[in-house]
Protein 1
Amino acid sequence: MSFILILYYSRHGATAEMAHQIARGVESAGLEARLRTVPAVSAVCEAIEDSIPETGAPYADLEDLRECAGLALGSPTRFGNMAAPLKYFLDGTSSLWMAGALSGKPAGVFTSTSSPHGGQEVTLLSMMVPLLHHGMLITGLPYSEPDLLHTRGGGTPYGPSHLSGADGSRPVSEEEKRLCIALGRRIATAAIALARRPAG
C-alpha cells in the first residue's frame, strides 16, 4: 500500500500543525503519511528557492501526487480561497490530469482562518474544485464526530478548520486536533478499502 500525501502551505504554523495531526490519523489507520509543502510565490518576479526548505516538510513534486494513495490538502484562507502558493502548485498538475493519475483516489481538505467568519467553509469548498476536476473522491467529516457539534473554534463537515485569532497566536485546540486526526483516518481508511476492491 502506498502513502497518503498531506500537502499544505503554512505561513505562521497553524496549518502545518493541522497537517501533523492529520498525519497522526493516517498512521493510526496503518498507512504512511507523507508531509509536503510548497514554496512561497512572488508577485514581482519568480523567486528562486532552494530545492529543500530550511525547516519543515520538503517541497512537493508531481511524483508525490502521482504515487500517493490519497491526499489531504491544506491552506490558510485567503479571501475565501486557498493561498496563492498552493494554487500555483496545483495549476502545474495538468499532466497528471491528462493521465488521470489522481482519478479515484480519496481526498480531503483543511484550513485555518483568523476569524470565525473568515471564510472557512467557502475556502474548503473552493479547494475541492481542482480535486474534483482530477476525479478525486472527496471525503469530509460526518456529524458522527462529536467534536463537530461541540467545538468553539474551527470544524466543519467539509473538513477540519482552525480559528487562529486576529494575531494568529491561538493554538490548535484539542477539538480541532481530534477533527484533523479523524480526517486523516477517514482518508487512509478509504484508500485501504479502495485498494481492496475487486478489479474491473
Protein 2
Amino acid sequence: MTSIERELGNLQARMETVEGALHAMRDDVRELRDALLAARSGWRLLVLAMSLATSFGAVLDHYLPLLAGFKG
C-alpha cells in the first residue's frame, strides 16, 4: 500500500465522520425549526386569548354599572 492510498483512506474515513456529523446537525436543525413553528402558533393563540379577554373586560367595565343601576 502506498503513501497516497493510505492518505486517501484516511481522508475518506474523515469525510465519512464529517458526513455523519452533518446528518446529525440536520436532524437537530429540523427539530429546532419544528419547535419554532409550534411556538409561533402558540404565541398567536396567546395574543388572541389576551385580546378577547381585554375586549370582554372593556365591555363589562362599560355595561356593568348600567346593568347594576348606577348612573355614570
Protein 3
Amino acid sequence: MATPDKPVDVVRVSCEVCLKEVPIAEAKIAEAADYFAYFCGLECYEKWKTQGGKADQPGPRPGS
C-alpha cells in the first residue's frame, strides 16, 4: 500500500519594491551592504537600483 506524499511548505519572500510574495527559489536576489534583498523580477530589481540600491556597486566599508 503506497502512502500519499506530504505537501511541502514553500518558503516565500517579499519583493523589496512591490512587496509581492514569491517563492524564494524564483526570487532574484541582490546582496546589499548588510542584507539580502529579494525581487519578484528584473523590473523591480532595476527600479530598486535606480532608487538607491547599491548591490552592483560595492564601495569602501567603514574602517577599511
Protein 4
Amino acid sequence: MRSKRLTTIKAYLFLLPFLFFFAFMVVCPIAIGFNLSLKAQRGARMWYVGFNNYSKILTDPQFWESFKIPLYLLVIQVPLMIFFAIFVALLLEKVEGRRGAPVFRLVYYIPSTIPAIVAAIVWGYMFSDSMSPFLPLLTLFGFSGKLLTRDIVPLVLLIIILWQFTGYTAILIYSSLLSIPKEYSEQAQIDGAGFWQIAFRIKVPIMKDTLITLFIFNAIGAIQVFNEPWMLGGLVVLPTNYTPAMYIYNSAFAQGRFTYAAAMGLILAAMTFVISFYFLRTATKQMFAQEY
C-alpha cells in the first residue's frame, strides 16, 4: 500500500510542471475570460450584467453569419486535405529507403514551418495587383482586372491552407503507415493485390483512428481560422465578421467591446469542444462495435 502511494506521488510530481503551466496558460485565462464575459463595458467602466452578453450573441446575426467560411472549410478543405495527405503519405512510403527520400519528406514538410507573417508576405506578393509574378502571363491573355476579389477569397483560402498544412498532415500519416506490420502487405501481394488496393483496402482502414484524430484537429483549425483571411484583408476589403475569430478580434480591438468578445470566444470554444467530442465519441462507439 505504501509503495502504491509512493508511486502515485511520483506520478503527480512528474505531471506537476505540465499541470502548473496548463493552469497558468489555459485554466486561468478561461476563468478570467468568463468573469469578463459576465460584465458590460463603457470605456474603462465595467459592471456586472450576468449572462446578458450570451443572450445577445445568440440573437446576433453577424456572429452566426461569420460561420459561413469555417463551414465551407470544414466541408471542403478538411476532407480534401486528408485525401491529398493520404496520397502523399503513400507515395512517401513507396520511396522509403531510396535515395532522395528524406528530401521529398523535407519538401512537403517545409510549408508548415513557415511563420504566418512570412506566409502573409509570400501570398500577398503572389496576389498583388502590381508585383504578382503571374501578371506578365495574365497580361498575355488579356487579363486586366484585380487578381483578388472578395468572391474568390474562399478559393484562395483553400489553396493557402492546403499548401501550408497538407505536407504536415501527410508526414503524420506517413509515420502511422510505417507502424503497420509489413506482413499485411506481403500477404496481400501474394494474393495478387496491387499497390493501391493494398493502400486503400488494408492500410487506410487500419489507420482509421489516426485519420479521425487528424480530421478533428483540422476541423478545429477550420472553425478557428484567422491568420489566412486576416492577411488577405490587406489586399481586399473583407467584412469584420468574415470568420468568427475575426469578428471576435474586431469586436475587442477595433470596437472596444472586450466583454462581448470574451463571451463570443467562450461560445466558440464550447462549440469547438462539442464538435470534437461528438466525433471522438462516434469514432469510439464504432471502434468498440467492430471489436465485439
